[in-house]
Write a structure and sequence with these properties.
Radius of gyration of chain A: 26 Å
Low-confidence stretches of chain B: none
Strand content of chain B: under 5%
Helix content of chain B: over 70%
Number of strands of chain A: 9
Structural class of chain A: mainly alpha
Distance between the termini of chain B: 9 Å
Largest sheet of chain B: none
Order of helices and strands of chain B: HH
Largest interface: A-B, 16 and 13 residues
Strand order of the largest sheet of chain A: 4-3-9
Strand content of chain A: 5-15%
Structural class of chain B: mainly alpha
Order of helices and strands of chain A: HHEEEEHEHEEEEHHHHHHHH
Mean pLDDT of chain A: 83
Shape of chain A: globular
Helix content of chain A: 55-70%
Oligomer: heterodimer
Low-confidence stretches of chain A: 26-31, 358-363
Shape of chain B: elongated
Distance between the termini of chain A: 67 Å
Mean pLDDT of chain B: 88
Number of strands of chain B: 0
Chain lengths: 363, 72
């Protein structure tokens, strides 16, 4: 068992190292001789398996003033006769044509006849990986549900790596996150949401560590959507006391109450906003850090020549591996922190305080 | 344009200083608490992570603004 694990671990390490070397080897060959860090943070409309395989373009769904258009790829959208063109050609550049087909450059679509794109429902990399992680969570939990329905894990001990691993985490989320923050009366109602949030975010964070994988949580829109769900869950389950605390804070002088109302009302929105920014910034900064470490090789090549770059590259590769390990830790910690803060906010909103109005009567 | 880079660098550094002091104080408090009461270490660790995350969130606001200044 441990032998197998060690073999898998070493193979994984070598694979990651190999991909990093492949990316590093590709760099200087580019005509621009620059690594586009901002470009790596952009939400692209193609899956990039670049050094080994090609780019796979994703379907585009565009809603403009002529109605809804479906295209199988960005190339099809540009070459079709719907008036869509790449932003690059709209700026006046000459068309790049390969095999009689106009090639997309920036993948940003605009209308060339002066019309407007009202909404862009296109699949992007972030959405593809978001849905992939959703399907993975669904598959895993349908499988586990089947096992528990058959009695494995309830009447007998849990069987297999998958069930043991997930049971540990599920019970941790239920007991340490939901129960301690929401309270014994209501925690079971919110455990399913917290579990799905935890595993979705965990899987999304871990996609970054797979070669060619992209982490959707390094995209602000995805984390904003997740934080919005937490916000809605919190507000729709708010107790009477919660709303009383927001608009008419008990226990303070009357002239302070309007000020408290403004502060508390803003607080409703800053909490999920901080959730969204925290997750995004943590995941995106890890990405930038890895690119910067790889970029140092080229900085050294520019300053001191190629020999120095080859000589010091093992240091940067090892540093990159170290950051990979940190990112593995951060993937778990950020999923945990998003979930525990969601649970905390839900717990604060759903708490019903004991009323002390009738207290003098008891005495 | 150059001033924007300067502002971004200074802002990122100052945000990191603030977060460093804050998280350091939390770490100190958690260490003290765990040393005095080792049986409460699980609860202490949980609340330490929560408060570290809250401080980190504020620092990350600063870092994101610095990043936006730098890539403007």
């Amino acid at each position: 068992m441990i032998q197998n694990f060690r073999r898998v671990f070493l193979t994984g390490l070598l694979l990651i190292l190999g991909v990093q070397l492949a990316i590093a080897a590709e760099g200087p060959g580019n005509d621009s001789n620059q690594i586009d860090i901002q470009g790596k943070l952009r939400n692209e409309y193609f899956l990039d398996f670049s050094p080994v395989f090609g780019k796979i373009q994703l379907p585009r769904i565009i809603y403009d003033n002529n109605g809804l258009h479906f295209f199988s790829s960005t190339t099809a959208a540009i070459n079709g006769n719907s008036g869509l063109t790449d932003e690059y050609y709209e700026e006046g550049h000459s068309k790049i044509i390969k095999n009689g087909v106009i090639q997309p450059v920036t993948y940003e679509l605009v209308k060339d006849d002066g019309g407007h794109i009202i909404a862009d429902f296109s699949l992007s990399v972030a959405i593809v990986y978001f849905m992939l992680s959703g399907f993975l969570v669904l598959l895993v939990f349908i499988y586990l549900n089947k096992k528990y329905s058959e009695g494995v894990g309830r009447e007998t001990e849990p069987k297999g790596v998958l069930q043991n691993m997930f049971e540990t985490i599920v019970i941790f989320v239920r007991d340490e996150i939901a129960l301690t923050n929401i309270g014994p009366e209501k925690y079971l109602k919110f455990t399913p949401y917290l579990l799905s949030a935890f595993f979705m975010i965990l899987f999304m964070n871990l996609f970054e560590l797979i070669p060619w994988g992209e982490s959707p949580t390094a995209n602000l829109t995805v984390t904003a959507a997740l934080a919005t769900v937490t916000f809605l869950v919190t507000q729709f389950n708010g107790s009477k006391d919660h709303w009383k605390e927001v608009f008419w804070f008990p226990g303070v002088p009357v002239f302070v109450k309007p000020i408290m109302a403004v502060v508390e009302f803003l607080g409703l929105f800053t909490k999920p906003f901080a959730l969204c920014i925290r997750l995004f910034a943590n995941m995106a900064s890890g990405k930038v850090l890895i690119l910067s470490m790889i970029g140092l090789i080229f900085v050294f090549a520019n300053k001191f020549g190629a020999g120095m770059a080859y000589g010091t590259s093992p240091i940067w590769i090892v540093m990159t591996l170290f950051i990979y390990m940190i990112k593995l830790l951060v993937a778990f910690i950020q999923a945990y922190i998003f979930t525990i803060l969601s649970a905390l906010f839900i717990g604060l909103a759903t708490a019903e305080h004991e009323h002390h109005d009738a207290e003098p009567a008891h005495q | 344009m150059d001033m924007a880079y300067l502002a971004a660098g200074l802002g990122a550094g100052i945000a990191a200083i603030g977060a460093g002091i804050g998280i350091g104080l939390i770490g100190k408090g958690a260490m003290d608490g765990t040393a005095r009461q080792p049986e409460a270490s699980n609860d202490i660790r949980t609340s330490m992570l929560i408060s570290a995350a809250l401080i980190e969130g504020v620092a990350l606001f600063g870092e994101v603004i610095s990043f936006l200044l730098a890539i403007k």
